[in-house]
Amino acid sequence: MDCRNKDILRSCRVQLSQDLTIEELWNPLVEVGLFTPPELQRINRPSSGIEDAMTRLLDALEQKGPLALKDFKTALMKGVNKPHILDLLNQNVEQKGNVTKGHRGMSSSNE
């Protein structure tokens, strides 16, 4: 994910963490190919730290490549009935510029 898309995701992070759960995102995220069930199981495991599962999911999402934000939005459209979340992401995309195009699964450690 490039820096612009990370900024978009981070600017919505509090709202996403408050309004979404891994349980409701599980099937849509797997369906769009963004995460596998074993990845989500690992993310959803209880942690001894203060991070919750949704925070860990958002951290992992940033490492998913240039189409991750687009795929996340697709998952939201397919399986989560919370249009205000999609509106929030779309507003941030418009403010910060279009989501970049690229190939799924590629990421760069310096992005």
H/E element string?
Answer: HHHHHHH
Please tell me the overall pLDDT.
85
Unreliable residue runs: 99-111
Straight-line N-to-C gap: 6 Å
Throw out a few tags for this protein.
mainly alpha, disordered C terminus, globular, 7 helices, 111 residues
Describe this structure in words.
The C terminus is likely disordered. By secondary structure, the chain is an all-alpha fold. α1 crosses α7 and α3 packs across α6. 62% of the residues lie in helices and 0% in strands. The protein is globular, with a radius of gyration of 13 Å.
SSE layout and pairing:
Blueprint: H1 3-11, H2 13-19, H3 22-31, H4 37-44, H5 53-61, H6 68-79, H7 83-96
Quick description:
The chain has helices at residues 3-11, 13-19, 22-31, 37-44, 53-61, 68-79, 83-96. It is an all-alpha fold.
